[in-house]
Write a structure and sequence with these properties.
- The protein contains 10 helices and 11 strands.
- The protein is an alpha+beta fold and 289 residues long.
- It folds into 2 domains: 162 residues, Ribosomal Protein S5, domain 2 (2-Layer Sandwich); 117 residues, Alpha-Beta Plaits (2-Layer Sandwich).
- Helix 2 crosses helix 3.
- The chain is globular, with a radius of gyration of 19 Å.
- The structure holds adenosine-5'-triphosphate.
- Adenosine-5'-triphosphate (ATP) binds next to helix 1 and helix 2.
Length: 289
């Protein structure tokens, strides 16, 4: 998370993520699921500008798909921090959305993470990163990772994080078919007892440790694909096409529908992008960071 500060306004860069693997271990009594996933920040970012105001919160966003009311995760971030520290000031939050919405790329969570970091500064709270991460999990399971960034193994509901070795600089093609997928729907539709193919975490961790894109690509598995691909077969077609065009590996991120492909060669990536342009709404070239 990078930031730029002036007296009463702060500009933050809020990065998205992909999941290099995602396993669902079981359902908890509180309704959430225990998962095991490797989260990876990507160089695709929203801009979040926080401006001090007299009172309350106002939100604006250049993407009409994003709510500007109390359901926006930045609203929740503001309210939680304001109430915890009895803050009397308000804020205007402007989100420049570049991350596709409801896409499995943590677009909302990363905006909430940026808001917590920004308000901590704007209000002079001096809270540690760890403290902000503990507050963040109350907003959403992916928020602590978005505060931390980089590469991490996430357990629990996604909030128990172990930082992993740097895996930056790998070329990624993102393909988003433009439908919104509800994370809650995908998890509730998953039949945990019938999961046939689960990721091998030891191999994936070895791949990260050796910074070996081949090992990672060969072992990427997301158990949520079964549900989302079952409902949107186009996701499987995109995965297949990425592999045909030379991707080392291709996977759906989070609960989807975004598919990413790892390429070790820009020429293959560009050819693949050109071919997918005929049928896919949004194609983005990025890299791991
Ligand atoms: P994750 O990978 O964390 O599950 P996602 O990328 O699948 O996230 P989001 O982009 O966070 O999904 O959006 C999910 C829903 O959250 C959207 O349908 C939208 O209505 C709502 N939402 C609330 N706040 C935001 C925000 N700041 N940016 C985008 N969507 C938001």
């Amino acid at each position: 998370m990078e930031k730029e500060t002036s007296m009463e306004s702060i500009t933050l860069e809020a990065y998205g993520k992909i999941n290099l693997s995602l396993d669902v271990l079981g359902k908890r009594i509180d309704g959430y699921h225990d998962i095991e996933t490797i989260m990876q920040s990507i160089d695709l970012k929203d801009k979040v500008v926080l401006r001090d105001s007299e009172e309350g919160i106002t939100i604006e966003c250049n993407n009409p798909q994003v709510p500007t009311d109390s359901t926006n995760l930045v609203y929740k971030a503001y309210r939680i921090l304001r109430d915890m520290y009895s803050i009397k000031r308000g804020v205007h939050i402007k989100i420049q959305k570049n991350i596709p919405v409801a896409a499995g790329l943590a677009g909302g969570s990363t905006n909430a993470a940026a808001t917590l970091i920004g308000l901590n500064e704007l209000w002079g709270l001096k809270l540690s990163k760890e403290k902000l991460m503990n507050i963040g999990v109350k907003i959403g399971a992916d928020v602590p990772f978005c505060i931390m960034g980089g590469t991490a193994l996430a357990k629990g509901i996604g909030e128990e994080l172990i930082s992993l070795k740097d895996f930056s600089g790998h070329l990624v093609l993102l393909a988003n078919i433009g439908i919104e997928v509800s994370t809650a729907h995908v998890y509730s539709s998953l039949k945990i007892d019938n999961i046939a193919n689960r990721p091998n975490m030891d191999k994936l961790l070895l791949g990260i440790d050796k910074n070996d894109l081949n090992i990672i690509s060969e072992n990427m598995v997301n158990v949520l694909e079964e549900v989302t691909i079952g409902e949107h077969g186009q996701i499987q077609d995109i995965k297949n096409e990425m592999l045909e065009f030379g991707a080392l590996g291709s996977l759906m991120s989070g609960s989807g529908p975004t598919v990413f492909g790892f390429f070790d060669n820009e020429e293959d990536l560009l050819k693949c992008k050109k071919s997918l342009e005929k049928k896919v709404k949004t194609l983005i070239i990025t890299k791991t960071i």
